[in-house]
Amino acid sequence: MKAMPLTTAALAAMLASGLALAQTAPASGPLAKLDANGDGVIDRSEAAKAPRLAARFDALDRNHDGKLDASELAAARAAAGKPGMHRGGMGARWQALDANHDGRISRSEAQADPAFLARFDVLDVNKDGYVDRTDMQLRMQQKRAEFFAAADTNKDGKLSFDEFVVEQGARRQERMAQWQQRAQAAGKPARPAPDTAQQVQRARMLFDRMDANHDGVVTRAEYDAFRPGMGKHAGKPAAGAAQG
Question: CB neighbours (10 Å) of residue 238?
Fold first, then answer.
């Protein structure tokens, strides 16, 4: 291997030194609260203070050094596609309520948000005294089951496109009415009504993706197996809502 020119070697050393300093710089935000010894990283014992983070420790520790630095947590947030460490959670609002950063909201923490507290018992689906990602997933599964049951008007255990699009449209109208009420209460302009033709076209595309065997109907198994965010069937209940 040829020796690097002195200037290049010096530059490489400077960059390496800078990277090392950046990785050991004092942590900030939620990271700082877990970083007990102030070394800029979260080790496994520190992560144990946040059970949800501890459960994902090995997956987040990309360089397998037994520590989580700010770049690894940032990469995890980017992969989740949402701010914060709670994929499928509530973003900034969730972080604001999660005072101890354990990935779940207790009833005492919920008191900081009266609207959230009012819905706490509904959101705590598994009745363990906390609202967390598991509750969000269970609630979504409940809503999906309710959608299928309501859409299946002839109760034959499968959805035709007409059944699907009618129920989807009805629920969209309900959501639009709720949004309009909230906008009016907040003194904000109302949202424009969605283009009907575009909504039907999107419903058709979604329906066709759910219809795994392309027989023109969606069975309960196909409906449950569909994962909207991935655009394919994964063989397990979906975490997202198919009703649009």
Answer: 21
pLDDT digits (tens, 9 = 90+) for 83-102: 344 444 456 777 888 888 88
- Global model pTM greater than 0.70: no
Question: Cα–Cα distance between 73 and 25 in angstroms, integer?
Answer: 15
> Cβ(73)–Cβ(62) under 8 Å?
no
The lowest-confidence range among 8-12, 42-46, 96-100, 183-187 is: 8-12
Read off the CATH number of the domain in which 196 is found. Answer: 1.10.238.10
Pairing of strands 226-227, 158-159: unpaired
Quote the CA–CA distance of 166 and 154 in Å, as a whole number: 13
Name residue, tokens 């010096």. 10
Which pLDDT value is given to residue 168? 85
Range of the structural domain that residue 200 is part of: 140-233
End-to-end CA distance of the chain: 58
Could you give the CA distance from residue 140 to residue 237 in angstroms, rounded to a whole number? 10
Confirm whether 223 is domain-assigned.
Answer: yes
Kindly report the backbone phi and psi dihedral angles of residue 96, in degrees, each rounded to the nearest multiple of 5, phi listed first. -65, -35
Strand partners, 105: 131
Integer Cα distance of 31 and 203 in angstroms: 42
Dihedral sign of CA atoms 174, 81, 131, 139 in order: positive
The count of other CB atoms within 10 Å of the CB of residue 156 is 11
The reply to whether 109 falls in a domain is no
In a domain, 58, yes or no: yes
